[in-house]
């Protein structure tokens, strides 16, 4: 059935409760490339290498309380075979603890009809809260491009405007060599999409081999920002937003280029492709 605007805008996505601890925190950090320098004490804190200093990487907020592939449910009216993750953002309100229990609620916040044959944009938001106190840890934002669902009679806006990067050379660069098997690790962060795992599925989708998860590339960019701007201090990590612009093959090198105003982009060095563009990072004030 086609998209019904009111139904999708008010679609009840199940609330999720999740407990996590040192193993989950360490796995997430390792799955986005932290710890590649095993002598860097700052990195070791995020991958369980230090008994006296354990921290959660801020970008872990993107995978906590994941509601599953809810857009694949027939009652949404979405053509689930033709959707693309277009943008991602997150705001950290309180530093994620190294272990705990959270409750996450995802909701649709906007739906834009680009017209027949041009697809639609779905905006969503996930709030992650402390299960005991209700305190807000993080807000995660996503834009999904529904390629097969335009022309349902919905509103034509508003459309979020991308951040424009400076025309000057970046002030900093940070390289993250990804591993050939990195998608096989990252899939345990609640994303078992076979496009990232099964060569047969990747071939049917037109790729020579499985591609890296978009949120894995986003996590690599977050690591770069944490390292360069925050000096690995998660308390200073505020917000980041960016647009996915190209795929990444596991094993390629991601270079995140950063400007002093918080602008950033992530480039695939081997193919000179911008995988994450229009990025903007904001520091969090430490009280």
From TrEMBL:
- A biological process term (GO) from this entry: fatty acid beta-oxidation
Disordered: annotated span: 151-171
Q: Which CDD domains match?
A: HDE_HSD
The superkingdom of the source organism is Bacteria
The MaoC-like domain is annotated at 164-265
**Where's the Peroxisomal multifunctional enzyme type 2-like N-terminal domain?**
20-148
InterPro entries reported for this sequence: HotDog_dom_sf (IPR029069), MaoC-like_dom (IPR002539), MFE-2_N (IPR054357)
Q: Name one GO molecular function term.
A: (3S)-3-hydroxyacyl-CoA dehydrogenase (NAD+) activity
Pfam families in the record: MaoC_dehydratas, MFE-2_hydrat-2_N
Write the protein's name: N-terminal half of MaoC dehydratase
**Organism taxonomic ancestry:** Bacteria, Pseudomonadati, Pseudomonadota, Alphaproteobacteria, Rhodobacterales
């Amino acid at each position: 059935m086609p998209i019904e605007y009111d139904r999708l805008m008010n679609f009840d996505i199940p609330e999720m409760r999740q407990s996590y601890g040192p193993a989950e925190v360490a796995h997430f950090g390792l799955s986005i490339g932290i710890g590649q320098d095993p002598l860097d004490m700052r990195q070791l804190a995020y991958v369980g290498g230090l008994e006296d200093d354990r921290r959660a990487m801020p970008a872990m907020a993107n995978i906590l309380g994941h509601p599953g592939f809810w857009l694949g449910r027939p009652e949404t009216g979405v053509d689930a075979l033709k959707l693309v993750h277009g943008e991602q953002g997150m705001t950290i309100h309180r530093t994620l603890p190294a272990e705990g229990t959270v409750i996450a609620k995802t909701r649709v916040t906007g739906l834009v009809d680009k017209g027949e044959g041009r697809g639609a944009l779905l905006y969503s938001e996930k709030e992650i809260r402390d299960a005991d106190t209700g305190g807000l840890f993080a807000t995660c934002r996503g834009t999904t491009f529904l390629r097969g669902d335009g022309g349902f009679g919905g509103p034509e806006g508003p459309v979020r405007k991308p951040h424009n990067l400076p025309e000057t050379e970046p002030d900093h660069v940070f390289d993250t060599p990804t591993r050939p098997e990195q998608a096989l690790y990252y899939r345990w962060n609640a994303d078992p999409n076979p496009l990232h795992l099964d060569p047969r599925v990747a071939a049917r989708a037109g790729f020579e081999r499985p591609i890296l998860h978009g949120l894995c590339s986003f996590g690599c960019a977050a690591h770069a920002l944490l390292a360069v701007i925050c000096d690995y201090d998660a308390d200073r990590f505020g917000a980041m937003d960016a647009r996915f612009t190209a795929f990444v093959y596991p094993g390629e090198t991601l270079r995140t280029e950063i400007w002093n105003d918080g602008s950033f982009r992530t480039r695939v060095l081997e193919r000179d492709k911008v995988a994450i563009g229009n990025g903007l990072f904001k520091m969090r004030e430490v009280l």
